[in-house]
Amino acid sequence: MTDKHILIIEDNAFINSAYGTKFNRESIPYKIAVDGEEALAKLQDEAGKLPAVIILDLILPKKNGFEVLSVIKNDPRIKMIPVIVITNLNQEIERRRAMELGASEYLVKADTKIDMLVDKVRKYLAYQAT
User: Fold this and answer.
1) pLDDT digits over 42-84, tens only?
2) Residue 98 neighbours by CB under 8 Å, 6+ apart
3) Which architecture does CATH list for 6-129?
4) In the chain, pLDDT over 70 holds for what percent of residues?
5) DSSP state of 26
6) How sure is the predictor about 1, in pLDDT bands with cuts at 50, 70 and 90?
7) DSSP characters for 57-125?
8) Cα–Cα distance between 69 and 103 in angstroms, integer?
9) 3-class DSSP state for residue 45?
């Protein structure tokens, strides 16, 4: 794979470890941010090396995922990056809000195996390669 990486925005250390193990096995480079402010700082600091895909939890410290998503989709430099929301919030109002803010996908953690998440990431990486 090229130098493209994904950015995982998730505050749960166990989930980050599981995602990291899987993405390492799949040879998909990744970076992790554990709160909304760190995520936005990483997106501003990348010096031209923006992530190809963002995986975003909605329940985060400092800035929640809705706030992060809003900032991403209102920044012309990064708004084109696909954002896969993966959360425990399972209400239609939350799904609708995330999609209206510009999420590419909305997944519920309890219903989503890591392999499914990897497949979705690969879909966006393949789309960008064409």
Assistant:
1) 998 755 689 999 999 999 999 999 999 999 999 998 999 999 9
2) 58, 65, 66, 69, 85, 106
3) 3-Layer(aba) Sandwich (3.40)
4) 94
5) T
6) very low
7) -SS-SSS-HHHHHHHHHT-TTTTTS-EEEEES---HHHHHHHHHHT-SEEEEGGG--HHHHHHHHHHHH
8) 7
9) helix
Q: Which amino acid belongs to residue 82?
A: P
**Segments making up each domain of the chain, as ranges:** 6-129
Q: Which burial class, exposed, middle or buried, applies to 48 when counting CB atoms under 10 A from its CB (0-12, 13-18, 19+)?
A: exposed
Helix (H) or strand (E) holding 9: strand 6-9
Q: Is the pLDDT of residue 111 over 70?
A: yes
Distance CA 30, CA 5 (A): 5
Query: 112 pLDDT band (50/70/90 cuts)?
Result: very high
**Is the CB of residue 46 less than 8 Å from the CB of residue 30?**
no
What average pLDDT does range 84-110 have in this prediction?
96
